[in-house]
Design brief:
Elements lengths: L1 E3 L3 H9 L7 E3 L7 H8 L6 E9 L5 E7 L6 H8 L3 E3 L2 H8 L16 E4 L9 E4 L5 E5 L1 H8 L12
Parallel strand pairs: 3-7, 4-6
Antiparallel strand pairs: 1-2, 2-8, 3-4, 3-5, 7-8
Length: 162
């Protein structure tokens, strides 16, 4: 593990939010999936906030869901919140909307503004580990910091019932 400089858009988002002391860490083994990230960091998979991009089916609007790493997104719950059905965005759409490749999408600092929802379970965590722009880099925020920088104050139950 080593400390690295975040991508420019992510660094700019940190600076705009006054979070200049956030450390971005790179893990050579990779952090592409929530399980990979949890193993590299040495935390529980539920401490990982995975940034997943979906596409609204009628409007083609991208929707970013910051999800608890242990759970899957319930597309029906999201549809009820946003008023239309969603499907997963493909790799080309993810890069076009965010500027990042799947496996490295941070929760903010994107190429374009995205409607964003946060899983409520994440907001109950003392800290959340999030992708930092590459499939091998992460950073840690408190739920308060994540809410501050995204402008989102309320999480939602977005998990698929198991």
């Amino acid at each position: 593990m080593k400390k690295i400089t975040p991508p420019e858009r992510l660094a700019s988002a940190f600076a705009t939010a006054g979070l200049n002391d956030i450390e971005v860490l790179e893990f050579p083994a990779g952090t592409r999936s929530a399980a990979d990230a949890a193993a590299a960091i040495g935390c529980d998979i539920s401490d990982i906030g995975k940034s997943l991009v979906f596409q609204a089916k009628d409007s083609n609007t991208p929707v970013l869901i910051i999800m608890n790493g242990a759970d899957r997104v319930c597309e029906n719950k999201v549809a009820a919140l946003i008023g239309e059905q969603i499907g997963k965005a493909d790799a080309t759409q993810v890069r076009a909307h965010t500027g990042y490749a799947i496996g490295g999408v941070p929760p903010f600092g994107h190429a374009n503004a995205l409607q964003t929802l946060i899983d409520e379970k994440l907001l109950a965590k003392p800290e959340i580990w999030l992708a930092a722009g590459t499939p091998s880099s992460v950073f840690c925020l408190t739920p308060h910091q994540l809410c501050h920088i995204t402008g989102i104050s309320t999480g939602h139950d977005l998990a698929l019932e198991t």
